[in-house]
Amino acid sequence: MPTTTKPATSVSATKKNSAGSTAKTSKSTKAVSAATDKKIFVLDTSVILYDHSAVQNFMEHDVAIPITVLEELDNFKKGNDIKNFEAREFIRFIDKLSAEHKLQQWLPLNGKNKGSFKVLMNESARVDATKIFGDKNDHRILNAALELQSEQPDAKVVLVTKDINLRLKARALNLVSEDYETGKVQDVAGLYTGNDTLEDVPAAAINELYEKGSCDTDQILEEQPADNHYFVLKSFKSSILAFYNSPEKKLERVDKQAAFGIKPRNAEQTFALHALLNPDIKLISVQGVAGTGKTLLALASALEQRHNYKQIYLARPIVPLSNKDIGYLPGDIKSKLNPYMEPLWDNLKYIQNQFSESSKEYQKIKEMVELEKLMITPLAYIRGRSLSNIIFIVDEAQNLTPHEVKTIISRAGENTKIIFTGDIYQIDTPYLDSQSNGLSYLIDRAKNHPLYAHITLLKGERSELANLANELL
C-alpha cells in the first residue's frame, strides 16, 4: 500500500508546538523531539458515544477514526438516549469540518495548537485482526489502527477505546492502547467525602456551639475548609455535629431534623438531610452503598419542601437488563418501564406508609402523584424539558457520563434544586467505571463551591441482614 503523508502545514504546526513546550532544549534537539513526540490517536465508537467532543481533547496531536466507526454511529443516530445525542452531535461536527474537504485527508481541527483529523478508509492490515479474532466491527477498527501504524512508522499510533477487551486485543497485537482519560477522576480512594471527624476539639468551642449555635472557625480549624463541609467535633467529654457556613465564615451547629416522617439514624444521614433541606444549597450529591438511605432521604426532603417548588421529579437512567433493549419486554411503554422504576416507587411507598391511610400526609402524597406534582420517570423522558421551579432527583447517577451530568445541571432554571444519588462502585453501564462515571466527576469537580454540598453515607440502615451482605459478601 502507498504511504500517506500529511500536509506540510500540519507537520509544521506540530513542530512549532513541540518546540514551544521544550524551550530550554537546544535547537539541534528540537526537530528530534518533535518527531519523537508526534502521536496519532485512533478513536473507536465507544469513545465518541461517551464524549462527542473527544477529538478536540488531544491537544496538538492528530486524531483519526476508522470508517467502521462512522458506520456504527449511523446505527446510533436515532433515539432519545444520551448515546444517540452524542452520535448525532459528532456526525454534525465532522460534517461541518469536512464541508469543503475530503475526510480521507488530514483536516486541521479548529482551535489553537490543535492537530488534524481524518477518517481511516483502509482496514486491511498486514497483521489481520479479523483472521485472528473473527470478522466483526471491533476487529476492523483494530485493523485500521494497525495499518496506520505501518504507514506512519515515525509516529506513535495509540488506539483509544473504553472497551477493555478491545484494549487487550490491541496490546496482544503490539499496538499501544489506552482508555479515554478526559473526565476521569484519578484518585477515587481519596474522593471528597463532604465530612470529617475531628478529635480533641477544645471543650470551650463545643460549648459555644451548643449555647450560641455557631463559633468562629479559628477556634477549631487551622485553615478554612471547603464550602458547605460537615464535621463531627469531639472533645474528651462531649461531641457535636457542625457545618461550615462559608458566607459567614463560621461553624454552625447541626441538629437532627426529620423530613416527612423520615428521621436520620447516623451522623452522615443527619448531614445529608441538613444539606438537602438547606435552601441556599442548590446542587447536592449523596454517595453510598445500597441500604444507606440515599434515595429515601432525597425523596423525603423533596416532599418536605414541596410548598417551595411546583413539581418534584424523581428520575433514573434506564440500563437495559442483560444489555437488551426495553423493546423486548412485553406490554405497552408503561409496562416496559415499570421494572426500572419500581425501586423508586418502593421508596415513595415506604415514606407513605409512615402514616395512616386517613392522614393528610398519606393523602397528600397520593394527590401529588395523581396531579403529577410528583413524577417518577425515566431520565430520558426529562431531557429537553425546562428545569425551572422544581426539585430534580437523579437516582443511580453513577450510570451517567460526565457529559450527561453537565447537560442536566446546565438546564437548571430559577428556583431549581438538583440532587444526584448513587454508588460509584456499582456501575451497570458498559464503558463506565468508578473513575469515569458522572457522579465521581461531579463530586471531584464541584467540591468547594458555595452552591454545592456532598455527603458520603457509610453505614447501611436498611437492616442487619443487608449490612451483612455489604460487609461480608
TrEMBL record:
CDD domains, per database record: PIN_VapC_PhoHL-ATPase (cd09883)
Biased composition, class Low complexity, residue ranges: 12-28
Protein name: Ribonuclease
The keyword Transit peptide is assigned to this record: no
Region (Disordered): 1-28
Pfam families to which the protein is assigned, alphabetical: PhoH (PF02562), PIN_4 (PF13638)
Family: Belongs to the PhoH family. In the N-terminal section; belongs to the PINc/VapC protein family.
An example Gene Ontology CC term for this record: cytosol
Alphabetized GO MF terms: ATP binding
Assigned keywords, A-Z: ATP-binding, Nucleotide-binding
Biased amino acid composition, Polar residues: 1-11
Domain PIN: 39-168
Keyword Nucleotide-binding: yes
Cross-referenced InterPro entries: P-loop_NTPase, PhoH, PhoH2-like, PIN-like_dom_sf, PIN_dom
